[in-house]
Backbone:
């Protein structure tokens, strides 16, 4: 059976056909396909400003790459002021881009915040699907179910940043941020009516606690008293 999947009519996303093709590739090849199929053409120069328009896929992907480059650099990635950190990301972004853009460090910081927030939620949805489904389930089906789960957790909003998610999902910095956000995101991911079985089982901490030491001693003492009375 052939499965098809689209990005739910995102006007800035690639065509549904390119995304369907992407699902048959590994992550790196998928990102390259998305960049090649970016619907917004570049004039080839670096001097034209895009400051007043929405981000396109190639900007998002380069931003994610620059964010990972600076975040994973053991020399400059940690313990630096926020302004310095984002200026470094902006410098890396503009030095390595091959498309028109004049984004400021503040704009890139704001955009990356949106990317990380949405990608963290989608990653949580995707991991829940992976845990629930048996091994051997096609990757396409995981993505379709994860998209549906994300929409339920986002008041019907579809996930439009697959190209960013493919880029950052295996990044150590991304995993670290997700770990710190995990308690606050857990409740957002659970869709209504779908995890009732898991919820009914409950975590181990909510199950009936075993009797404590004092309770066991009292019970044993009562049993001895009852035995002696019968004798």
Residues:
């Amino acid at each position: 059976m052939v499965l098809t999947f689209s990005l739910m009519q995102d006007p800035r996303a690639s065509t549904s056909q390119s995304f369907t093709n992407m699902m048959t590739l590994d992550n790196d090849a998928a990102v390259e396909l998305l960049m090649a199929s970016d619907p917004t053409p570049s004039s080839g120069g670096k001097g034209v400003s895009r400051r007043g328009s929405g981000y396109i896929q190639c900007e998002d992907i380069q931003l994610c790459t620059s964010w990972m480059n600076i975040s994973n650099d053991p020399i400059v990635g940690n313990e630096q002021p926020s302004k310095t950190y984002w200026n470094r990301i902006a410098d890396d972004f503009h030095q390595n881009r091959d498309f028109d853009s004049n984004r400021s460090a503040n704009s890139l910081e704001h955009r990356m915040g949106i990317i990380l927030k949405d990608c963290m939620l989608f990653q949580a949805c995707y991991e829940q699907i992976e845990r629930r489904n048996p091994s051997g389930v096609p990757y396409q089906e995981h993505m379709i179910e994860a998209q549906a789960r994300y929409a339920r957790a986002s008041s019907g909003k579809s996930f439009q940043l697959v190209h960013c998610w493919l880029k950052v999902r295996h990044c150590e910095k991304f995993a670290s941020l997700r770990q710190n956000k995990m308690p606050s995101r857990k409740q957002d991911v659970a869709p209504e009516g779908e995890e009732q079985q898991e919820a009914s089982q409950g975590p181990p901490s909510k199950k009936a606690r075993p009797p404590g030491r004092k309770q066991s001693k009292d019970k044993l003492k009562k049993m001895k008293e009852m035995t002696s009375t019968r004798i």
Remarks:
- The radius of gyration is 25 Å.
